[in-house]
């Protein structure tokens, strides 16, 4: 058994930031499924929001305006106290990143450059070309090396250990050896990322399976607002690889088959820089009504930006378009369509990362602090990782300092380890009639087809029934990789159970919510309904499936109003 | 170019040290179209043919650096290598050469990370930080534009013949990282940066063979960075500053 006072699960930005905060204070270690620099944070492109007011065009910007844009963008489902904390802490967090060495792009005056992004009143998105996530992730890892924070990489988390109302560690598997170990801790912080891979059309990395969310859910911690799934407007045709919103921030056009800049019909003022939910619906409407191109896409046209600007500001997506679609955006428009991109929902927690389980914290995409509400603004997720990574790390360290060692939990830890070892052995030798790859594909297709951008009662009910049928069939799966070392078959199918349960929570929440708000667009209930639905969904795991409860939204200064862009 | 929508023979290196067998290549028939990548083919095998195959992958968009492998005679990222572009009826995949194999296509990267850590891979500042960002001009930022694009995939590290023979040599990836900080106008480590690389395990072990530059999937040139560091070291030595 391994012991650390704080165990951070996840080596992406939120996890590393949490560890950097906790490590100088208490014995802290990071457990990561992949080496930290392989984390999905590195795929973030366009930038990170903070009201630095560095450009002439944003000299009047401030954290309050950032908060308002975020709350309006959230369709008023965000908790406003948490948003205000995020936008207030933002500028200092960005400066800290710069001091650590993040190579931000610069203004002619030598300051951090900022670009316009969707739903924002000012150019507020600090960027480093179009590889902002990559550079911040590498820089954050450099700080982890500098501080000497202990990292256990290629450990896959399998279970959360609880003793009554207290969290006391995790069980994880070392992929290179297959060894399963219990990690005992006084505090556990989950920063395990999103669940994009429950969809077939996700921009997310293969590792974004929502493992942390489902493990918390199974351990009795509720998930919040899972029905709110973000579809990014511009995923590359076929592969669904992300093409940054920064492309539109720099002036790119969205064009249909008739050559129209169709956003003028949907958001005449903001045009291509309306929030993501609106732009995605607009693109999907164009495609559904026959104004898309033959492959079911529209065009993102950057040609008018000119070669120099594309090479300087958007080199990453140029390479992606060339490598994965054979298109050089300097010469041809990029074929795109909306793709699943982000899980607004997640582990129910507050701005300090605290959940209902004592000693258990969450931060980053796996968490639902509730700063994104029903629709996240681009550039706010990187900000969320650093702000709430820091705050949850600080809170966990504070909690641990005031607490005796958890040696008393030894029994609970031993039992959890024994249970997980038995369950993995059972799965490794599973020899049923169901092929898990087919189950996975059916799940992903069901989510994309029935729980997509536009939703109806009938389709959601069909989707729920389909997912429940897959949950039953999962019990009969067979595995074909039996070895100890680097057993992807075992890992992927352990994760698959969690993915099915997460899918069920998403569909159940979507079916119940009879209104349209942000990314949740019900064609049978096209209006937002603040009387009945200005509230958060909580999903609790039960043997019969998701049980839903609701809790109020925190509103401080900004009363809900109609969203127009 | 080959006709599409057909099968290709993929031969994958297989080795599990827990099983008392010599390494071997297994052959698989994989259906492909004109866009199928090597990574997609590996997933096809894992899901449809042989669940015991092991390989690393994550982002599938050439940014995370997980899936570097030796594919038809060259170190490449499996995710950005389209099979038709290999122009071959047979795809032969081995783990990155000269790294210990953990299983199949998964290699032990410990030595790679150990070298990375030796160059003190983080910004070093000695005076108190300002309240705002460190000022940096657009020109100064340009000086690090290439070096910061390294994704630490180890293609260069594995293809460098000098790294094969001298296990202590920092190698192209670590030296590119050293250059990234030496060239950053904000870094205040000064001579310390150069001292870390001005030795026989450092820049002078590079014999400009350019394997690293040839294999870099991001189009970077560690060789160039190493020569830049050599120039700086020589200048400091010739002027008795070092």
Low-pLDDT ranges of chain B = none
Number of domains of chain B: 2
> What's the number of extended β-strand segments of chain A?
23
Helices of chain B, by number, come to 9
General form of chain A: globular
Average pLDDT confidence of chain B is 96
| Shape annotation of chain B | elongated
Order of strands across the biggest sheet of chain A? Answer: 7-3-2-11-18
Quick one: CATH superfamily of the largest domain in chain B?
A: Alpha-helical ferredoxin
Quantity of strands of chain B, as a count = 7
What structural class is derived from the secondary structure elements of chain B?
A: alpha+beta
Distance between the termini of chain B: 55 Å
Name the chain pair whose interface involves the most residues: A-B, 59 and 60 residues
Main sheet: strands, sense, barrel of chain A = 5 strands, parallel
Describe this structure in words.
The complex is a heterodimer of chains A (565) and B (242). Chain A is an alpha/beta fold and 565 residues long. Helix content of chain A is 37%, strand content 18%. Chain A contains 16 helices and 23 strands. In chain A, strand 22 (535-542) and strand 23 (545-552) form a beta hairpin. In chain A, helix 2 (63-73) crosses helix 3 (80-100) and helix 5 packs across helix 15 (488-512). The longest helix of chain A has 25 residues, at 488-512. By secondary structure, chain B is of the alpha+beta class. Chain B has 2 domains: 6-107, Ubiquitin-like (UB roll) (Roll), CATH 3.10.20; 110-238, Alpha-helical ferredoxin (Fumarate Reductase Iron-sulfur Protein, Chain B, domain 2). Helix content of chain B is 31%, strand content 15%. Chain B is built from 9 helices and 7 strands. Chain B has helices spanning 38-49, 110-118, 138-142, 155-159, 161-165, 171-182, 191-195, 211-215, 222-238, and strands at residues 6-14, 24-32, 68-71, 74-77, 90-94, 101-103, 106-107. In chain B, strand 3 and strand 4 form a beta hairpin. In chain B, helix 2 (110-118) packs parallel to helix 6 and helix 6 packs across helix 9. Chains A and B meet through helix 3, helix 4 and helix 10 of A and helix 1, helix 2 and helix 3 of B.
